[in-house]
Amino acid sequence: MSAQAQDSAQDSVAAQGARSREAGKEVILELKDLSVSYGNIAAVQNLSMTVHQGEIVTLIGSNGAGKSTTLRTISGLLRPKSGDVVFEGSKINGIPGHEVVKLGICQSPEGRKIFQRMTVSENLDLGAFTRKDTAKIAEDRENVLELFPRLRERINQKAGTMSGGEQQMLAVARALLGNPRLLLLDEPSMGLAPVLVDVIFETIEKIRTQGVTVLLVEQNALAALEIADYAYVLESGRLNTQGEASKLLDDPSVTAAYLGGH
Amino acid sequence: MAAASHAAPSSSGGQRSLGRLAWPIGYVVVILFLFFLYFSILPSLVKPVSAPVLAWLPVATINECLMWAIMALGLNVVVGYAGLLDLGYVAFWALGGYTAGWLMAFPFNWTWDFHLFSPVKSTLPGTHINFWLVCIVAGILCAILGLIIGAPTLRLRGDYLALVTLGFGEVITQFFRNSGDIAGFNLANGDPGISPIDPIGTGPLGAAGIAPPLLTNSAAGNVWKILVLGLLVGICIFVSLRIREGRLGRAWLALREDELAASMMGVPLVRVKLLAYAVGAFFGGIGGVANASAITTAVSPSGFDFGKSVLVLLMVVLGGMGNVWGVTIGAFLLSWLNSNGLKQIGVQIDAIAGTNLEASLPRYNYVILGLLLVLMMLFRREGLIPESRTKALMQMPSRTEAESLGADSLEAEAETDAVEHSDAGADAKIAASAAAMAGSGAAAGAGTSSGARREDES
Q1: For the ABC transporter domain, which residue ranges apply (chain A) (predicted)?
Q2: Topology (CATH) of B57-397+417-457
């Protein structure tokens, strides 16, 4: 099944023209010609993209470009109008959100959406809601608290009383406790001071080294491109540009449009 | 359910298990104290001492309070735990009561003599089934009704959900009002209702002469009812506490906090919401049976008005949504005020001021309860005994303490949104709509006129 997916992935690679993406890595997620709409309003149109095992892929674009819609479709909260979401070789569109979590796709949503009135510890427990492997959960919990030492300090604090940065850390940590193979991060830098953005992004790189594939949606294109392997640029719901992140960083048109002349 | 609650790693495990034993012991002591107070202590005291106690807290009122506590604990599961505002909770109380009417009463329509562990004479016609069995049957029937009511409301939130549940509550009452002739079949005897309903039996205790064999509405029966109803409340408290600690409880809390985020964590929203309705309804059914058998000994549609739904909701909100103890105390306080407290306050004022409030004050119960709620919302929004979570955000600590650690000086700008958008607001909203409902209840419920008007309509 996965070989098949790889084939089709390679087909689409060929169709999209040359790209020097590391060969031999398995495709973990593929969006095929995906269109999503809210009523009559098309939010995403004919989007095709692939995420390979172990990569950090970023989806950048301005406000309203359809980035969050794409993520929500992957995580089963929205249904595509047409096209498919293929995860590890099987079609997952139409599977409800709470089932998608069990497949190994966990999300840190836009605006964090942590459980404010629960403690950090309880939030982490909920992250592992679908899992029953108690020993592994405890291990993952420990690992996550290593990644975010600040959360360990605040483990019994009500999450809503923490600062924005800490809440973002919690949102990512909570998603990690679902034991994801694919981690979806929606605007993790939103509303954070630059120093904290750096902390979060460094952690994302660490998460990747632990074998978790990351799909990162960002408005902060510069920060995202700096850590990502590959990037897709959305504009008004359509794919505008794609390419290796390092190349896009040097691309004057991208720089002008999304990096604010950095 | 218990198996699923893999407890969070905690350093105070020993303390916790001690804490687990503490409440059942305390609870049993309180119930036993109440029992012996009325069983032996008060009768042995001189009249000047015992009379005021019996005037302010008659045994019948204690029983009523216990019955309402079952109801409030049930609604607390739906409103307090899962955050689903239910304004039609009276439906379950009614169905529970009518289940008792069908299964443990003198026949009003069909003559089908059937006795099952019933304490009443076996020569009595009609269906007579043991109180405890009826409790279980009513619980199950109500849970099914809960699922039926819950299913169409799954996609609704907030105000819309409240309106639909309100509609269902009224539909059920009207159904029983018109149940005397359903295509020619007398299902539940319409307006007159069903009576008398069998009292609770005491089985071996009764046979041995320790307790009266039947717990009727007599002085002796009422005292023993404290133990029976106290046991039911104890079971409800136990179940409430256990569920909350388990996987399902956590799912409910997550749902209450943020539906979307809960779904992203893998909480199956549909199942979890339906379970909240079903569990809440189960409690409501038991409350209905307890009410019909031990308190009123009769069921009729006029007893199941909207005001009762509001009353239970007030108990939950005033006591502290989500906190089992708060809700229990809220239930005691309000049902006491409603059944006897207001009257006694009236009597006291009459004695001093020479007015005639003894009769009129209880009629203004909803005005007074509404006022009480408004005051609570102004000065203690989180309820008498708030759930720790609610308290934390409703009385937001100033963050200066944390900031003084120098930890967060860089990110002050992100603070305001977290606090202002917190879901503490959602609870305040439930409380506010409860206040509005109490207001409208006051308009209709101050006299008995609304009941009379409805009878005219039908």
Answers
A1: 29-261
A2: ABC transporter involved in vitamin B12 uptake, BtuC (1.10.3470)
Q: At B140, which amino acid appears?
A: I
State residue B358's pLDDT score: 85
Judged by CB atoms closer than 8 Å, whether chains meet at A129 and B267 is answered as yes
Rounded to the nearest 5 degrees, what angle is found at the Cα of B295, between the Cα atoms of B293 and B296?
A: 80
User: Could you give the strand order of the β-sheet that contains A182-186, starting from the edge strand earlier in sequence?
Assistant: A105-108, A182-186, A213-218, A56-61, A230-235, A238-244
Domain range list for chain B:
23-54, 57-397+417-457
Beta-carbon separation of B419 and A158 below 8 A: no
Domains and CATH numbers, chain A: 2-101+213-259 (3.40.50.300)
Please list the residues that pair with A182 across neighbouring strands: A105, A213
Region label for A163, one of left (φ > 0), alpha (ψ between -120 and 50) or beta (otherwise): beta
What digits encode the pLDDT tens for the residues B187-237? 888 899 998 999 999 888 888 888 898 999 888 999 999 999 999 999 999
Q: Which residue in the set B262, B265, B414 is minimally distant from A192, CB to CB?
A: B414
27-66 of A, contacting B, C-beta below 8 A: none
* Interface with chain B: mutation pick from A117, A132, A169, A176, highest number of B CBs within 10 Å: A117
B405 touches chain A (CB under 8 A): no
Predicted confidence (pLDDT) per residue in B414-450, tens digit: 443 444 444 445 565 666 666 666 655 444 444 333 3
